[in-house]
Amino acid sequence: MIRIKGTPYQNTAAFLSAASHIAEYYGFEHFDRLPREPQRRTLPPGARPDADINFARRDEKHLPSAARRIAAAGMPPQGATLAWRTLPLPSGASGVSLELHAVGIDSAIAEALLIITADAILKHANISERILSINNIGSAESSGRYVRDVGGYLRKHIESISASLRPRVAVDPLGALVQLIERGHPAVSRAPQAMEYLTEDERRRFWDLLEYLEISGLPYELNGQILGSRDCWAHTLYEIGAVDPETGARATVAFGGRYDPLMSRFARKPYAATMIAIHAEARGATSVKVRTPGVRAMYFAHLGLEARRRILPALERLREAGIPIYHGLWNERIGEQMTAARALATPYILIMGHKEAIEGNVLVREVATNSQEAVSLEDLPSYLKQRRLGISQTADK
């Protein structure tokens, strides 16, 4: 977890306030602001969506409450939910977990948005040496052979496994492997690797995420030991580690992944969901005030896959310059984004198409006159500040 000593914050509340402000810049809102829809009973009386879940990690035990709340909110008109909340650490240790959730987004942009937002939060906390580790366990349909091979591998080493864990090898091989990894068992280094079992479609999907990270300048490592329950997770899992500059010790400060299987239980239909949780120690005050979102004067729209890849680093550049902006990264069609911009009544729209992405430019369009000007991404923050485009709007409070 993050140690508050060594960060710019006096207490945990100050860290959470700064972290949630960064999350809100990227479009995340507090769970309390999510609407509630009346739930129709579609399950037999007494049936529960969280029954019979095999948890493999302590990190997973808070997921059902998030899935239940988001399912109660229903699908918003914009087609995606970005939300954050704070809660005690699932391990029971003295600390706080800041969770970010991106729901309703099936593409790899969801994981990329979460990782980049978390990285910005950690960077702002003066955690200079950050290590992003990623694994891919495939879908529930494609990972059956992997789980069978894990079970067979663990049975070969059953004599070296503690008696208390042996029964789990038979009923939940993946959960047993997670426990062995946490205990540092010597056999885990030669266990089957989930990424070797991915289908071609899953490999392409995984490569999309890696491309987002590379374009955003985020280094990463592939780590086959980042695993979790198949009842909770599918496809991508990731951790962010922080290295102590004095001792060189590495500690996990964030963990997350795609939890479609669990979210679908509560939504009672196929439902895409991703999250990341950042763990911080409890030091001094820990409660954080929920701000009222401010009005933003610009909407950043993209057209095409290349533009979508380039927007994330552009958004981070604008965030660092203190220029608030709306976006709809989860929308693939430009028409949906323009509809959102009209609904928000932003006087300016930034547009990046394929041509602009390749050239490193963005079009700055004034809605009232429909006039536009091409500006390089490098010069964009200074261009907007010089013309005070979006600077005089009400800031987030």
From TrEMBL:
Gene Ontology biological process terms in this record: histidyl-tRNA aminoacylation
Matches recorded under Gene3D superfamilies: Anticodon-binding domain, Bira Bifunctional Protein, Domain 2
InterPro entries in the record: aa-tRNA-synth_II/BPL/LPL, Anticodon-bd, Anticodon-bd_dom_sf, HisRS/HisZ
Domain Anticodon-binding: 316-386
Gene Ontology CC terms: cytoplasm
Keywords carried by this UniProt record: Aminoacyl-tRNA synthetase, Ligase
A GO molecular-function annotation: histidine-tRNA ligase activity
PANTHER family documented for this protein: HISTIDINE--TRNA LIGASE, MITOCHONDRIAL-RELATED, HISTIDYL-TRNA SYNTHETASE
Family: Belongs to the class-II aminoacyl-tRNA synthetase family.
Name of the molecule in the record: Histidyl-tRNA synthetase
